[in-house]
Amino acid sequence: MLDKAKEKTFKKEFIHIKENWLIFLVCFFISRYSIIEEIFPFAIIVLSTYCYNRGPSISMLLVMLLAIFSIQLNFVYSVILIAIYLFFYSFRNEEQKSVLLISVYGAAVLFFSKTAILVFGEFNINSFMLNIFEALFIFSSIALINDGIKIIKEKKYINRKKSITKSKDESSELNRIPKSIMEAASTSVSNDKPFLMKQRRSRSSNKKKKFNLFSDKAKNKIKEQLLWQNMNLKFFEVMSGNGDSIILSLTVKTEKTPEETEAAIVLIVRNLSGIKVKCVERVIASPNYYVLKFKNIKRVKIRTYNATAIKDGSPVSGDSFAYEGRSDKYYTVLCDGIGSGQEAFDESNVAVDLLSSFINADFSEEQVIKTLNSILMLKFEDERYVTFDLNIIDYSKKEIRLYKAGAAPTYILSGGTVDKIVGKSLPMGILENFDYNVFKRVIRKGDIIVMISDGIVDSVNMDVKKSLEKYLEIIMDKDPQTIANSILSYALRGRKEVMDDMTVLVTIID
Fold first, then answer.
1. Closest Cα partner for 300 from 370, 429, 397, 371?
2. Which of 184, 228, 422, 473 could be 432's S-S partner, Cβ–Cβ 3.0 to 4.6 Å?
């Protein structure tokens, strides 16, 4: 078994070298370059940068050692390079560390290693200053190079997102809703280009001055804007409640309905102060005379953590996911393209990008799903589809809505119990008359939502002794990132290889 594992590791490294031979060659010649006599900082910079962006590679370590040995047998740099490789190897299954940390580590290993030799040998002030210079050079180089790579990746991602967007004519056509999509989805369609315009507008509007609700200026502005809408404000008071809560008490005379009056006040207060409020009490004193009480909506912290594994031999994962908070809602989405590799990634990524755009363009949840299915049917070839798993946490209503189409189960960990939610509908992009499963659950502070792709389910089900539901009961008190990592490890336990792309999303409501 060990021989097979070693053979598999060597084979994997060989494929890695074969696919990236040009990068290895360039890195070899860069690493051979020395600044002053026996100083080889570029080997450390190259190895740190490569391991940070591609993961720990024994092949790259050997290339760096070979580059230095081709000049001279240098024991100090060999130890430094091995220490850097082991640092990345020890954290290979954890979340990527910060650029600052790896920069500090690379510089510190070099400085303390070479300074220790100086201290126990012949101490020389010039050599000591040279060590400081080399450490600073390594620190700044690693930080700047990786920041540059990050910026380039972000620009590539933005350009790729823009390439998904239709041309101007197609955009306006989608915006007017073509009949073919109208019939299939029975809803309106919008391209993600209008979303980008809306996003830019919202950013510019956020720069507008916000007023303190307790100030006279804010009260006068609210009174003025209500008057423009034929609502006469007779009484207005702002009070501090328990903790950080704010209570607004208003008496309004208007011919509008109570619902219209409430909606107008909510919008005006939000635009002027940035505070979101909801009506908690309404008294109709007489016709067209309302006494209303509003309370600010307390924001909750919702965070999502992930753990992923790519199928052996596949360059990219076919799973794509996104999570974002907007207004008083927070959504997480996980899509899985059919099969694995680049084609599966492209399909799932398109679905996630479009869904994110539609949500941010204020489509209703039902519109988002049906429109997305219609567009995917136009984009995909025959027998191509994606599974779809969308959770929307609505913390103003204290509920979570789960939409599933061919997706794996979702687990809600709440109050010491595990609630398994299973959908039974087909994936997206197959049928025009698209059916999907919808579930609603009450959420509380401290609840944890676990989303998984079918790679996790299939791997766990291969062992009859395993039960993900029971395992979640054991680890549910752990922190979210540990839960995500543990689920992935549990699915891979006993497996000789990663047979399918695996993704775990763990969302916690604080």
1. 397
2. 184
Using CA atoms, how far apart are residues 86 and 98, in angstroms rounded to an integer? 17
Q: What gap in Å lies between CA 100 and CA 85, rounded to an integer?
A: 17
Tally of CB atoms within 10 A around 442? 11
**Identity of the residue numbered 51:** C
- Distance, CA of 501 to CA of 315 (rounded, Å): 11
- Closest among 41, 55, 57, 32 to 140, alpha carbons compared: 41
User: What is the model's pTM?
Assistant: 0.50
What is the distance between the alpha carbons of residues 148 and 6, in angstroms, rounded to a whole number?
36
Owner of token pair 């006993």: 494
**Positive or negative: CA dihedral 65, 69, 73, 76:** negative
* 494 touches 459 (CB < 8 A): no
Any idea of the CA torsion for 467, 469, 470, 473, to the nearest 10 degrees? 150
Count Cβ neighbours within 10 Å for each residue of 144-162 and write b for 16 or more, e otherwise: ebbeeeeeeeeeeeeeeee
Distances (CA, A) of 79 to 82, 114, 234, 343: 5, 11, 78, 42
Question: Considering Cα of 485, then 488, then 490, then 495, what sign does the dihedral take?
Answer: negative
pLDDT along the chain (510 residues), means of 10: 51 67 76 63 82 79 81 78 83 69 83 79 77 83 82 68 46 41 35 34 48 85 89 88 79 90 90 86 88 83 93 91 85 89 88 86 83 79 78 87 93 94 85 83 93 94 92 94 95 91 94
Q: Which residues of 119-129 are buried (b: 16+ CB within 10 A; e: fewer)?
A: eeeeeeeeeee
- Other CB atoms within a 10 A radius of the CB of residue 424 amount to 8
Instruction: DSSP letter for 191, please.
Output: -
Backbone angles phi, psi at 98, to 5 degrees: -75, 155
**pLDDT for position 139:** 85
How far is C-alpha 42 from the geometric centre of its chain's CA atoms?
Answer: 33
Q: What are the CA-CA distances from residue 470 to residues 418, 441, 482 (Å)? A: 9, 21, 16
